[in-house]
Write a structure and sequence with these properties.
With 231 residues, this protein is mainly alpha-helical. Among the domains are: 80 residues, Ribosomal Protein S8, Chain: A, domain 1; 37 residues, no CATH class. It contains 8 helices and 3 strands; from the N terminus they run H-H-E-H-E-E-H-H-H-H-H. The chain has a 3-stranded antiparallel sheet, sandwiched between helices. Strand 2 and strand 3 form a beta hairpin. Helix 6 crosses helix 7. The longest helix is centred in the N-terminal third of the chain and has 41 residues. It is elongated, with a radius of gyration of 50 Å. It comes from Priapulus caudatus (Priapulid worm). Keywords: Coiled coil. This is Sperm-associated antigen 7 homolog.
Length: 231
């Protein structure tokens, strides 16, 4: 049993031997990495301080509305700019292509960009007051045209078919023509021409005659009752 265990142990690879030279190289490599990290951190801190000073100068200048930074392919640098802008109360956005010409632009809150302005920068276009005015005028013209079209649709009505043609198919051409003449509107009698009316009496005469008929009918019924009032 002891011989078997010894055979297994002897067949296993022994741990590598690390000499002083290798330890020294590893220690130097670690120190180099740590130094680079410290330098990078210090570099970013200096960049942050420069960005803060640049933003402070921009805020104090009452004539400036927006501040455009140089292209920054490094995402960390752009993040720092956004952080500084937010602390200073500015609105900031990134434009351009990643890892190529991506840059940050910041605005004072009272001059915050419109959606049209942001869209122009995202498309790589310039933006100015003249362009904003032209776009506003174009939208007003389009809105006015839409209103005029809507008004025309609401006031104009085009029948799907001519009612005369429809009646010609149903009752014949001659009968449809006669019906159209009869139903011609008249100011006094509506849809029936006055010459077609058989009753020529006025409304007052008609009402008087109706009342007279009711009165005579009531008198006849009264005369027909027995003298003692029994039924």
């Amino acid at each position: 049993m002891a011989d078997l265990l010894g055979s297994i142990l002897s067949s296993m690879e022994k741990p590598p031997v690390v000499d002083d030279k290798q330890r020294k190289l590893a220690r130097e490599q670690k120190q180099k990495i740590e130094k680079q990290q410290v330098e990078e951190k210090a570099k970013l801190q200096r960049f942050r301080e420069r960005t803060q000073k640049r933003i402070e100068t921009f805020i104090k200048d009452s004539d400036e509305r927006r501040l455009q930074f140089e292209p920054m392919p490094d995402k960390v640098a752009r993040t720092i700019v956004h952080e500084c802008a937010e602390v200073a109360g500015l609105a900031s956005f990134s434009f351009g292509q990643d890892e190529v010409d991506r840059y940050v632009m910041a605005w004072k809150k009272e001059y915050a960009p419109s959606d049209d302005e942001l869209l122009a920068y995202r498309r790589g276009e310039e933006w100015n007051e003249e362009k904003a005015k032209q776009l506003q005028e174009q939208r007003e013209r389009e809105k006015l045209a839409e209103q005029e079209t809507a008004n025309m649709k609401s006031t104009e009505f085009v029948p799907h078919s001519n009612y005369k043609d429809k009646y010609e198919k149903l009752i014949g051409k001659t009968a449809a023509k006669d019906a159209a003449i009869i139903t011609t509107a008249n100011k006094q009698y509506g849809f029936v021409p006055s010459e077609n009316k058989t009753d020529k009496r006025s409304i007052e005469e008609t009402m008087n005659q109706i009342r007279e008929k009711k009165k005579k009918k009531l008198e006849r019924e009264t005369d027909a009752l027995p003298a003692d009032g029994s039924t």
